[in-house]
Amino acid sequence: MATETTRPMTRSALALAKVALKVGGKVLPAYSHVNSPKVFTQPQLFAMLVIRQFFGLDYRGTEQLLADWSDLRKVLALKRVPHWTTLQKADERLLKKGVSSASWMGLSPLRELAA
Question: Cα–chain-centroid distance for residue 12?
Answer without folding.
Answer: 14
